[in-house]
Amino acid sequence: MEKKTVNIRIAGSTYPIITEDDADYVEELAELIDKEMKMIAQESPSLSTTQCAVLVALDKADACKKATASADNLRAQIKDYLEDSARSRMEVDVARREIERLNREISTLRNKLADK
User: Fold this and answer.
1) What distance in Å separates the CA atoms of residue 57 and residue 77, rounded to the nearest whole number?
2) Residue 34 contacts residue 56 (beta carbons within 8 Å)
3) Arithmetic mean of pLDDT, 26-43
4) For residues 37 and 52, what is the distance between their CA atoms, to the nearest angstrom?
5) Which among 19, 52, 17 is positioned nearest to 34, based on CA atoms?
6) pTM (2 d.p.)
7) pLDDT at 93 over 90
8) What pLDDT is attached to residue 47?
């Protein structure tokens, strides 16, 4: 992909960001961070811009870590479901073979009875 520079504004400062991502996406991220920093600054006016940024960063790191743990958990569950599914398919195949064997045995016994 082609890299491009996207100028974003967060907390009154402009930052040129070099990215391969869509400009709208990067701007949306910047707006999200700017909004969260403004909320923190309004709730705690004594905090500096840097302190607000650190709090937002901690919040985003927490969300990222929890999302990663959740995704890992979902992957593990999916793996378990796939293993259960494979096991069930094998059990179904065994049951079908047993049914076929029993049907052949029934057929053989019926033929023997018919011959008597």
Assistant:
1) 30
2) no
3) 97
4) 6
5) 52
6) 0.70
7) yes
8) 97
